[in-house]
Design goal:
This protein is 69% helix and 0% strand. It is mainly α and 143 residues long.
């Protein structure tokens, strides 16, 4: 019975890994197509920062889909999506946001709070960049 449970768990993990790879490929494809299309439109038809807002929403949406499918979110695309969305909103409202400073704060906060919220797992909390998940280090999960 234990062998069957291990096999079922392995099958579920394989399906999640395959789904994550497909989501990543589809997400980046949609991102590139959307940004390319927006850049082709005349500037007067697209609000200032529109392509940044679209890119941020796509990256954050990709992580939301991962979350609701029980797949670990990509810290890189989560932070990048948030920063790009902030940049787009800032451009739309003509705010001059200090994005580099915001990025440094986000990375520092990630490093500080990640060990507090990370679930116990076989992976240590400090294994590289603060915004990488344990799967980012290996080949099991692509981001």
């Amino acid at each position: 019975m234990t062998n069957q449970n291990n096999q079922t768990t392995g099958d579920i993990q394989k399906r999640k890994t395959a789904l994550d790879a497909r989501l990543s490929d589809i997400g980046w494809a949609v991102l590139l197509i959307t940004v390319g299309t927006i850049w082709l439109l005349p500037e007067r038809q697209v609000p200032q920062g529109g392509w940044l807002i679209a890119a941020g929403l796509i990256l954050l949406g990709l992580n939301a889909i991962r979350y609701f499918n029980g797949i670990r979110m990509s810290g890189f695309s989560l932070v990048l999506g948030t920063l790009v969305l902030l940049a787009g909103i800032g451009a739309f409202f003509a705010w001059h946001l200090p994005l580099f400073a915001i990025a440094l704060i986000a990375i520092g906060a990630c490093m500080l709070f990640r060990p507090l919220v990370e679930r116990k797992s076989e992976f240590p909390a400090s294994h590289g960049c603060c915004c990488e998940s344990p799967g980012d280090q290996g080949t099991a999960v692509r981001h």
